[in-house]
Each structure stands twice: as C-alpha cells, then as structure tokens.
Amino acid sequence: RSAQLQTQFNPRFGNSDLERVNCIKFLGVLIDCRLSWKTHITAVSNKVRNSISQLWNMRKVIPKNLQINVYNAIINSQLSYAIAVWGAFKTHDSLKPLFVLQKRALRNLFSIKRESKFVKGHTKNKFNELRILTVYNLYNYATLLHLIKLLIFKKPVYLFELLELHNVKEEKRKRITPLNLKLSHYQNNFCYQSVKLWNNLCSSPSQCDSITCAPTLSCLMSRLKNFIRKAQLFGDVNSWIPINNSLELYLEAMKNNPYTENLTA
User: Disulfide-capable partner of 55 in 64, 69, 109, 195 (CB 3.0 to 4.6 Å)?
Assistant: First the structure.
C-alpha cells in the first residue's frame, strides 16, 4: 500500500517534477529517505577505516609531538563533522562501530600494545591522557553546545521557535519541555535528544550554573568539555563502562555519591 501511495504522489517544484531518491548529500551529510542516518554513518565508518591504515604506515615517521595533530586532522575531523545531526540514537547504538574504529585508530597511531594474545591494549588511559573525547562524548558536547548557543543567541529562528524556547524563562537552568514524539524512531534527532541532554544537565544546578554562567563563549566551551571529560574519566582506567559515555548515568552517580566529582577530578 505504501508503495502505491509513493507512485501516486509526485512532488513538483514550479513546473518541474522532483526526482525521488533514496539518499542525497547535503553539505557533506548523507540524508536517507527514512532519516535513519545509517547511510551516512556507514560512509563515515568507511572513511575512518581507510584512514586507520594510513595511520599505521605513518606512525613511525610522525614526531610524537605531532601525533595528536594528525589524529585530529584525519580521524577527529571526520567523526565530529555535523555529529549533532546524525549522531542521535534512542533505541539502537548506532555509534558503536565508530567507537570501535576510534579505539583502533589510537592503537595504530600511538602503538598501544596488546595486553596478551587475546586481549587488545586498553585505550581509555590514552583518551584521557590526550584529552580526546570518545565519539559518544563528541556527540554530547556538540549537541549541548549547539543548544546552549541557541538559548543565548536565539538563532536560527526557525529552530528556536520549533523547540518553543521562547516559552523558557530567563533562568539559565530552566528545564525545557521536549517535543511530543511518541514513536521512539522519531526521537533519533537533534530536537529531541538535545532537550533531553539539557534537562539531564539541569538536574545538577551547580554544574549547569558553572557552565552557562561562563563569562565568554570560549570559556563556556572549555567548561562544558571538562565536565564531559569527568564522566569519561569515571571508573577504572583500563575498562570502559556505560557511565563514561552517558551524562545521564554520570549525573545520577554524582547524586548518589557526593564524592564522585572529587574522585574523577
């Protein structure tokens, strides 16, 4: 039935028929007809995978003081580009393949040796030593930063009105009412997930005030990144746990244990 409806509906622009396609590239982002972002994530995965082999060949000739610059230029730039748009996930962990590739890139570039024949070298310590955010936290950082800018500058106007931010009081830690999206599939977008992240941040007034009351935008960005890094530092240095990539779980742990922040500082 849906196929019949698609054949009957022929969108037009002026006097021209619009061609129906399954995927289109817009500003470097692949948008599929279902807005699932699977096509774009697959494309990013392929680019990162190809870059990893280059890092393996380059690792012996790159000076150590330039290794982080090479990583940011080759790997981080591909992972972080427009991630606030395509990185949202509600029901399916779409970023996991990219996280696996991100860890492999660090092992290749920084020559992280295996613990044993069947155990790969741990990367968490290297992430934190070089102040690198995981792909999950790149999404958390970019999404929160864009929403905070939206609250401050009220631009772009259409997005400000879509999220109904004009109803938000001047209090900087005021919670925002999320869009009423009943189907979980439609929650995989910036408009829903950014509000969810913001409300999680507002559950800790001290953290929220510390970030939003920064005197300058660059200071705000630095404080936000440091806060996210605290969640990434949480726990044992040789094992990843869900809290490391979830601000909601980290803030909940802080509530349950008032000394959490000191332990991760």
Answer: 109
> Which pair of tokens denotes residue 199?
């409300």
Instruction: Tell me the helix, strand and coil percentages in the chain, rounded to 5.
Output: 60, 5, 35
Q: How confident is the model at residue 263, as a pLDDT?
A: 45
Residues 6+ apart with CB under 8 A from 161: none
Contacts of 109 (CB under 8 A, 6+ apart): 55, 58, 59, 62, 67, 70, 71
Q: Note if the bond before 178 is cis, omega within 30 degrees.
A: no
Confirm if 32 and 20 have CB atoms less than 8 A apart. Answer: no
Longest CA–CA span in the chain (Å) reads 66
Query: Strands 29-32 and 12-13: what pairing?
Result: unpaired
The whole-angstrom separation of Cα 185 and Cα 91 is 7
CB 228 within 8 A of CB 251: no
Contact criterion met (CB below 8 Å) for 191 and 163: yes
CA distance 119 to 168: 50
- Assess contact for 237 and 125: CB atoms under 8 A: yes
3-class DSSP assignment, residue 130: coil
CA torsion, points 142, 145, 147, 153, in degrees to nearest 10? -140
Phi, psi of 217 (to 5 degrees): -65, -40
Q: What is the mean pLDDT of each run of 10 residues along the chain (265 residues)?
A: 55 78 88 85 92 82 86 92 85 84 89 73 88 93 90 81 65 66 72 84 82 87 92 87 89 73 48
**Enclosing H/E stretch for 32:** strand 29-32
Q: Name, in order, each residue with C-beta under 8 angstroms of 158's C-beta and a sequence gap of 6 or more.
A: none
